[in-house]
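Record 1 of the preview.
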Amino acid sequence: MARALVFLGSFLLLSACTSLVEKGDKLYEQGMYQQAAEFYQKALEEDSNDVEAQQRLNQARHKIIDRGLIEVRMLRLASNHVGAADKLESILRNQSIWHLEAMGAQAATQSEEVRYAEQFLKARGESLANGTYPDQFRWFEHKYALLIANAQLGSSFTLYQEQLKQVARHKCAALAEQVQGQRFFLYELTQKYCSVWQVKQNLSVDQYDNARFASLTLNKNLQLNTSQRRAHQQLIDGAISQLQDSFQRSIWYSPKSTQALNMTITADVEYQRRSTHKQQEKRYLVQELRQDPNDSNKQVKVDVERVYIYPLVDYHESYSARLSYRGKLAGMLLSNQHMDSKSNQTTSHSANFAEADLQPKAAVFLDQKALFSSYLSYLTQDFEQSLTQLWQQQYCQVQRADLNAENVLRCAKVEPSNNYVNSWFERQFGIDHQAMRTLYGI
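->
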């Protein structure tokens, strides 16, 4: 039986893979090589030893490269040399990722296009090297790294490094002049920038960051009118710890600060339970022998209704909670609240009388701990997002000219694609924030 199940599983897996390969084949025949490759890849994900799927995948990828080279040529003939270089670079990257080597006619076409691209690269490289933004040249080298290597231009581009370094030295000095006081983010950027260009600078900022905080302190304001007060207090302590951990992961936290962010967490809980004792009736039937009305000498079984009376307790519960946290962060309100209430009715009794189909019944009360825990989750779940939004409001919406560079860099931490951020980077370095982030790890 076990062998049969193993065989069936293998058969189903093989059938699924074959189906994927067949779907890929149909797309391949229609010239849809990219879509075909996706099906072959899925087949290999299900069975990495599927030789047929691997062969078909390689064939499809070669076709993708062939088609890409045709596109490169068309772009070049249309004098779109940037588009041709971009496409050729992507082809080279795919070949590297896919571990494919161009052969035959494909290799000849690729070599020809690399030779044409070489002229564009030389001209573009020389123009950028003589420009006012050395980082544009570095980004150019990064963007076309494989194409430059294939065109064997690395050594010739190395000759530009000294003149690029001279321009970068002036940029580094200009940045360093602004590094002072509370400009910690500018300090970090300048330090990395100057280090990459091998320019030594003596940078100095304040010892403490006055705009951020080393910790979060939450003062408790609790009104817990419930018999489970201790359990509620423990849950609140857990929520406070969670909020503090979230704060330490936020952009507002800095170990270079000496101040604590003070906030208040408020919890008002009301729980009431009323009980009513009463008598409950349960009617049930028993069979008794009675004289047959049709024959005085006979007895017959007759259903007789009886009543069983037993004590029962009715409970009525009500539970309500109002939770909030509140504080001021850089003059902005940081707050959230959650309110909810629940009611419940339940009964209990100890009657145990099988004839009346009665068994003892326990009351099912509200799970106050679970309710309160869920309420705290609602309260704390958006805390990190709220902190980020306040940082955004402080540095991305209020664009202060007196601290422009520092303000931009602080905004970039939460909104790297902001036009305010990118326009500054393009003015300073000739490339956008994402490119600088890639080059310098800022």
